[in-house]
Amino acid sequence: MSHLLAVSDAIAAHARLHPRKTGTRDSKRVLTFGAWDERATRLANGLLALGLEKGDRVGLLAYNCVEWMEMYVALARSGLVAVPINFRLMAPEIAYILEHAEAQAVIVQDDLVERIEPIRADLPLEADRYVRFGGAGTPAGWTGYEALIAAASTTPPTVTVRPEDPFALMYTSGTTGKPKGAMRNHEGNALIALATAVEFGFSRDDTALLVMPLCHANSLYFALTFMYLGATIVVDDRKSFDPEGLLATLAQEKVTFTSLVPTHYIMMLGLPAAVKAKYDVSAVEKLLISSAPARKDTKLAILDYFKNSGLFELYGSSEAGWVTLLRPEEQIDRLGTVGREWAGSGAIKILDPDGKEVPDGEVGELYSRTAYVFDGYWKNPEKTAEAFRGEWCSVGDMARRDEDGYIQLVDRKSNMIISGGENIYPSEVETVIGTHTSVKDVAVIGIPHEKWGETVQAVVVLHDPSADPKAAEAAILDWCKERLAGYKRPRSIIFVQDDEMPRTATGKILHRTLRELMSRDKAMS
């Protein structure tokens, strides 16, 4: 049987080769590779001792912290499947993911326990499979994370993990209002890590700072890359983005790489010149900007401040992995594109609705063929079938390719909104707003925002056209507050009459037309 080095094997190898080297750290804890390997083994054995078996799903709910590094390696070592959950989600959203994934256990940071307690009665988990870390003591009804580790064996579990076995269910916001679990396997982890290391020129001498949430594919892919290499991973464990704090960490830890969204860069570069001058960021050699379009002035400001660094831009997804890469020397000359296919991405096709390739310069749906593509959506064969044409995968993005092979994203088939790097599907927000008794119809769109890229705007038709709009807006926003994560909530609501909502001949709301109307009205005001 062929064997591909799993990420847990890589950590074990680095523990043997350089056990005292710092493997990962946050502001509170430092783990050498030796300690990281031992704690991951103990955690793996501790979870299996709870009665969990290979293939069982384990929910992970935490802010960024070094424990993510332990959990990902421990689950890989025990054959358990990680279900990372966005810490911004509210209790009903978390409940859906845990129930849909059929999670058999959940590991929760102390600060987020309040998101789990209200839904415990609805989750069919055994009492000792609620694991908690980060607080003082362990309240009744919870298993202590540190106690679980302390009591477990340091002998690696005798679980055979094969390349094709699932590593994680990465839940993405759903175009139909419910998240979908993208199944990613161990072989995909190794291949995307290898491709990333080769294309970026990373080595074991790098120090990477992970700022993006570790429940997201972006930070997970880069974490895997540096785990395989044996480089040092610094986890930014602040609960909210701190631009000066980031500069301080870059300087103090002599970070060589980090990945940020445009909003992060805008906030950081917007600091007073005197503040920015305090920090020596000369060690930074490579930077990534991704998840949302970036303006020319933003890119130039990044290059001006980080004088020793090259800037990269990636396009990808939880499903396909990385698909395109825009390299440092292309940033300005190819502004507005997301680069070309790269060594790890295999190939790209731009197809029309009939599955035929469109000529260069014309818009079609972007399909990619990557060696690390996902295995489909958990318990959703229909959506899995929609994502593939043979071995070619699409997440519904519309694009055009120029004669040199550079890809420009034109629109999202799903009307997805990107706010501060978070993906938001209008249908999910529309489903929540549409259940309010006063709402007859609703459309949710993204509107441009200088800092966040886009913000969520709801356009609502009320059952009672004569209702007080201020009272209706307050009631609907309160409704959303209880049911949606903060980044998904509309900041305001525009009320229109039924005949003012742009629709197709069959009555379907035209989101693109609505965005154009809102942009025009804003420009005229």
TrEMBL record:
InterPro entries: AMP-bd_C, AMP-bd_C_sf, AMP-binding_CS, AMP-dep_synth/lig_dom, ANL_N_sf. Residues 428-508 form the AMP-binding enzyme C-terminal domain. Keywords: Ligase. Residues 13-378 form the AMP-dependent synthetase/ligase domain. Pfam families: AMP-binding, AMP-binding_C. PANTHER family: ACYL-COA SYNTHETASE (PTHR43201), MEDIUM-CHAIN ACYL-COA LIGASE ACSF2, MITOCHONDRIAL (PTHR43201:SF5). Belongs to the ATP-dependent AMP-binding enzyme family. This is AMP-binding protein. It comes from Variovorax humicola.
